[in-house]
Amino acid sequence: MIFSTLEHILTHISFSIVSIVITIHLITFLVDESVKLYDSSEKGIIVTFFCITGLLVTRWISSGHFPLSDLYESLIFLSWSFSLIHIIPYFKKNVLILSKITGPSAIFTQGFATSGILTEIHQSGILVPALQSEWLIMHVSMMILGYAALLCGSLLSVALLVITFRKNRKLFYKSNGFLNESFFLGENVLENTSFFSAKNYYRSQLIQQLDYWSYRVISLGFTFLTIGILSGAVWANEAWGSYWNWDPKETWAFITWIVFAIYLHTRTNRNLRGANSAIVASIGFLIIWICYFGVNLVGIGLHSYGSFPSTFN
Question: Where do the structural domains in the chain lie, given as residue ranges?
């Protein structure tokens, strides 16, 4: 009873803080980019991280097993993973680009998990026999940490594509205007037109930083995903007598692994870095959500215990 009450309190506290942080983010984005408001939102995410940590520990103690047995618990852990990735650059004070992605990701994931939409599966139940294994912590935690890192890295790649597209479009319009002006006026306007202005320079630097951090975060996530798939194969052999069963979840996890393996391969070629590899990572962003969330909507296969309640099917 005490643990249930504590879990209830921590859930409401984290959701309240998340709501406040979302409001602050909207204010800073739409109205005023205040440094004080931004710092308040950053501290709010850190407080949320400790609330989620307390929630996971409380649920672990009360249920007697690591809280990764259903969709609600996995969403809470995914939010915790986003918050963990967010805290690292916050204390380093030099990776603001990464925090711009991880912050909102943690906010919206935690907000969805604690909003009441998944109320029917908030209560922790008895583990199904297949989950009563020490491999639960190893496999599921590695998979969700991998999802979190890959999602963050993919969002950085999406941002890179957006900035690159806008930059190329502006350069295209400028070059056309330059050619037309040169043709009709017959003057050398090259001196009056600066294609490499300070704004373009900083935009190029931003693209390089996005590419740099996208590659490193995705590499980290790919490592977690690989460990998760391998540990899951060993666990599947112990539970079901086969290392691989082509279950929908397994199939989409393999597709996710292939997509990001292609991304890492494109990074080895200098000509394919930047926008080309970012396109692959952007495709991977959609594949991850199909693997993690979309398969749960169907609720079939050996991983159906992680699906939505019957009322949502």
Answer: 1-120, 131-176+200-307
